[in-house]
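Lab notebook, bench 4. We co-purified these components, and the gel suggests they stay together. Before we commit to crystallization screens, I want a quick structural picture of the whole thing.
Request: model the full complex, all chains together.
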Amino acid sequence: MSAALDTGSAGPLLEVEHLTMRFGGLVAIDNVSFDAADREITAIIGPNGAGKTTVFNCLTGFYKPTEGRLALDRGGRPYLLERMEGHDIAHHAGVARTFQNVRLFGNMSVLENLLVAQHNTLMRASGYSVLGLFGVPSYRKAEREAIDLARFWLDRVNLTARADEPASSLPYGDQRRLEIARSMCTRPCLMCLDEPAAGLNPRESADLNRLITDIRDEHGIGILLIEHDMSVVMQISDHIIVLDYGRKISDGTPEQVRNDPAVIRAYLGEEEDEELPPEVAADVAADAAKSGPAGGEGA
Amino acid sequence: MAVLAAEPGAAARGVDWRHVLKESALAAFIALMLTITMVGLRTLDSGGSLIIETRFPEVAVAVLLVFLGRFGLVLTREGMPLPVLIGGVVVAAAGLFLPLPATVLRVMTVAGGIILALRAGWVLWRHSAVTADREARDLAMDRVGASVQRVTRYVAPLAIAFAVALPFIPGLNDRSSIDIATLVLMYVMLGWGLNIIVGLAGLLDLGYVAFYAVGAYSYALLATTFGWSFWLCLPLAGVFAASAGLILGFPVLRLRGDYFAIVTLGFGEIIRVILLNWYDFTNGPDGISSIPRPSFFGLATFTRRPGEGDTAFHDLFGLDYSTVHRVIFLYYLILALALIVNFFSLRVRKLPIGRSWEALREDDIACQALGINRRNIKLAAFTFSAMFGGIAGSFFATRQGFISPESFTFIESAVILAIVVLGGLGSQAGVVLAALLLIGMPEVLRELEQYRMLAFGGAMVLIMLWRPRGLLAHRDPTVTLHGGGRGAKAGEAVAAAGAPAQ
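Here is the predicted assembly.
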């Protein structure tokens, strides 16, 4: 199935060119360019404050980039994200995102969260509320379809049994998965996941990896992923971009990035000014040794 | 302490007397500071000169009462409810016979003693301190809210039937009862209208009275200037108020939270000041008088002797003339209008626009990320809310027959908001309950006029302490996957779920 669809897309899904974001004198992102492809997981990694979330905020319209071009190709139709309003980016261009600190509609039920995500479809079906007010059959049908889509995603993230409970009553891991399900209900072509594994235990984290790779394989969308957990990144990414102090310092497959001296320098510091106490240095070395084989499996 | 409180039988074991006395003394000291000027000194006008009369015995008694009251409360908490129960009864009885300097103090002594005794008795009976667990209480209140919500489904039709039958129930069908009922319904309608923007969309609108004023003046001016009928002006007033909402909506779109509240507060005042100062147009502080009364759907009038070509209502139905007919008609009119607003609100909650309003209240950043155009839905909330306010305003104008800017002060906005907040944001039944409490009670208990605002403030403080989300704040989902029996049919639902979508 995926082979048949492959012929459809020619260029990359997203082309980021010379993206720069300044806040006053602070340069949060400095001339970053990269591509993200359909059916691929592109991870953006980097130390804290490297500008990863800022890239997401530029892509999804929460910030207007100071400079640069963000070109998205949705099934042959081009969009320039830097010129669009935030809600249009999600609605028309089909860029969905999740947030570092989960942002659910806490007092609304799980199912309602997924229906809000289909707002634009339902709004049109309800004749911008006029027809819906009188409960015309076409709106009822659209709502049933929306509930079916919501149920499909609830089954995927294993939350069907809790569909009628308030979203805030779910455990943290479930909330994370619900947020992903909610973004998928907008039928996006590019999904931006901002640290989806933060705060999850190893088992939940493994489930999440499977969910993300399944979404990539079954729905043929591109996924941008910010993640700190290197085991996640190395296992599931097809392509990694490394940012440091707002600049791109490396770009390539997990294998290439792991062996890139610039990346090692950014994460572990220069060897000259490294004056770690011996026991800490030993720890670091042990960590590096541990993450090596773990990453190897995935790649 | 919690353990002690749980078994009051274990009385004096470990009561920290120094702490108890210190806490009671502190309360008494605060009472002293408050009463010494407010109660202790009183200016008297005697023969043209102003003299100060001192009333220190009253102060002493008040401070003593506060001391004893606090002492009793703390002792109850510390696990000695039995002595407190006896003490409360003794104080209440003593209050009846002791020579006290003022009647108010006597009432306070007796009431305080009884309340203390009741509380201690409750603790004895339940074997636990009532205030023990705030969270458990909150949960219990939420369960109450949920069950009220369930009950509402059956009570609402009964309540509507009662409201419809009210003018024919003997004993309640006199003019003043129907007037009070009309007033309550007006506030119910305003509360439901405001609930759309405050309760659903979560935007704190402190200037709702502005739309009420726009509606009232629209009708009054159109009717007195052009002689247009009420039935034509009613929708027009709604349209004008909705336009006012739209105009206000644009500048405040980018604001939220406190800033939004301040701008709407300002807008409410601007409208009032314009009405006050644009003398040529609005007749300024003199207001607009002799606003025409509504006709019976344009078919008949409510006058004893109708003019040329008009039919009188009592002739139309072959009744004897009575002034109550118009009052009853107005009552039914506002009932119908309020029910329309209610129908709209209940209906719209289940529509995508209503859900997006609630989503906006929960998290507006997430709304944008889901492709919801926040500007449009905020404007829609504003416009609908304003429209209903305007319609209620034109009803107000036709009922009163006279309007002036005096009727549209900030306190009106505050009362409507208090109804919505007290009832529980977003709760339709809560608005009715709160309107009955805030509007109906003071009207019924007219004699308590001077304590009305005091009681009002006190009630609000208590509600905010015990039930910060409002009396009936409980939200039922607008749509369910498993129907009422949540979770019960979960397995079945999982099995039934096919593979739609992509």
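Strands of chain A lie at 14-23, 26-36, 41-45, 67-74, 77-80, 95-97, 190-194, 222-226, 239-244, 247-252. Worth comparing against the SEC data before the next meeting. Residues 278-298 of chain A form the longest helix (21 residues).
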